[in-house]
Amino acid sequence: MRHQTKMERTHATSENRAPSAGASETAKNEIDARLITAAVALSMSDVDEQDFDSMIAMYGEEDEQREILIKKSREILKLAKQAIFALHRRDVDQCQRNIKHCRKLVAETQPITEGFPALRFLGIYVGALEELAEAEIFFSFISERRLPRFASLHPLRVEEYLGGLMDFTGELNRFAVLRAVEQDLETVSLCRDFVNKIHEKMLLLDLRNSPLRRKYDTLKYTEKKLESLCYELQMGIRLKGFLPPSMTLEPEPMSKSDAEEKEEGK
Description:
By secondary structure, the protein is mostly helical. It is built from 8 helices and no strands. It comes from Toxoplasma gondii. This is Translin family protein.
């Protein structure tokens, strides 16, 4: 029997090892594939599809409710402004109807703001509530000569009540001018004293740089205007009916036929 040379033995050993190396490479590839599959499955499990879908639904619902709240806020703003103008025309019944309608709309918004608390501070909604507060305060002054209780204007916040109160003083100045034209010194003086009391109480607040602070600044100018108005009216009465130019109404224009009739009457 012939003995294998060293070279032959080495070649035979290499041939025997070759299949083993290929098998190990295949096994390694299979392990890598399983690891990749497991990693993908793990990454997919990090995103809970059901939870994400519920968030999308909640976002859509909040956006839908926001649009509803904006629409109702516009209605409240319009009705409250009309209520204020009705009071200037001395149409108290129309004012009451508008305020009642506003309260109904505010009640309809309650479920929205309770379900989505962030919408409670929506700018247009806050502005609508301040406008409603202004109308309520103006009506209370005309009918009862006092401010309405804060609790009676639920769900208004303190800032919204005070914001409406500051706006009310501007309307009170306009109301006083109309009464001054009628030489109603008592009512004009009442308006001045009312604003003075409001200013006195507002001085107790530590107001920061905010919309309420800017509205408070206008209160001081309104107070000065009312004081000047009272002074001018008192002087006019003392001068036997003389009215300063600021309180004198221009005569209505007459048609040609009216002028001729007036001339014939003379």
